[in-house]
Please model this.
Amino acid sequence: MSGIARILLARAVEVSGSDARESPTVLALRALGARVEIGHDAAHLPPAPATVVVSSAIRDTNPELAAARERGLPVVHRARALAALAAGRRLVAVTGTAGKTSTTSMLTVALQHAGLDPSFAIGGDLASSGTGAHEGGGDVFVAEADESDGSFLAYTPLVAIVTNVEADHLDHYGTAEAYTAAFVEFLDRIVPGGALVTCTDDPGAAALARAAQERGLRVLRYGAAADADARLVAFRPEGHGAAVLLRHAGVDHELRLAVPGEHMARNALAALLAGVELSVAPELMLEGLAGFDGVRRRFEYRGRAAGVAVYDDYAHHPSKVAAQLRAARDVVRAAGEGRVVVAFQPHLYSRTRDFAAEFGEALGLADEVVVLDVYGAREDPEPGVTGELVAAAVALPPERVHYVPRWLDVPVVVARLARPADLVITMGAGDVTVLGPEVLRELEQREQPS
Model:
């Protein structure tokens, strides 16, 4: 939502809105000229004519939304607003169950390096610029397209990147089959002459590629397969990054990434193919990708104390959790010692209920697991659905799995578990992100002489 506001402000459109609490995002929007109220009240609505833009997180009972409908003001979902902002530009829409934000960010940074000055709207802030949206001067618009509620069907991309397709958001779709069907429908949104960029290593994405070819769409594949248009030939962790050997158009390239994880190497290949599709030279794209230094809340380094490195990550789906824990393991191995300690906060009661076993399997990649209670977000609690469901599913010895429902206890427990050379990562889509500094404070107290 803040990204849409930024772009509208850059186009000299009057913008107002509301949020639940003060935040750096609110302060930044005010500095750009937006009027942002704290709390939700019908009195905050501007007089007509005005258009109200809402996200899926806003319930129908929200007083501002209810008042807007009573007054007959146009109400537009955020995806349709973003699609309207991209009209007349060459749109690249990035979607998939996991990896959307990182892939969108990588592509944006590489295109900026190539001098295209794209407009962009990303579901996270770039580490380099501190923002997730920008009104560029070029003719390219890069958008992270959210599939969670089907709103990605609002876009008409020239290039569509689908990172993977794996069941999620069953609170909206109901079944895994319905979720997959939405991606097939998304293929029909690609403009004539456009292309689908997708990963051969993911079964769901590979099936989508076959469906696209049956529709006569041009498909560009990336992954480890020998016939991939951008092939991952070799991957080697190096410190907090990696050395990647890739093959594109019959030419081998070595790419050094400043971010860890083999999944990030695949994301880079997706960005490379999309950039080349926009007529950027491969060498320029690779230079830009080498300069990518991450996204906030995506394996974001928060600090070090008592010899323990603390990171924070947004992962909230089993495949995302597994990918980031593998990346954490790569960082620990590159250092030569240490363990991975994760503090995981399940997000949504429905997702916790549907995927408790899969979360348990993914978290088993860590050495010590702390599970918080569920961050309900837009959902009401469900009887019997707590973080304990996830903790019980972790395939580790019981003494290495810790269900800690009381929020204030979590930093103490995590700091007690961590040893020098360990990597601690707080993980989830809720307010678990604020725990990193608390863990660091607990660790710093350990360093102080008694």
User: Anything to note?
Assistant: The chain has a mean pLDDT of 91. The chain has three domains: 2-75, 86-290, 300-447. The radius of gyration is 22 Å. The first helix runs from residue 2 to 10.
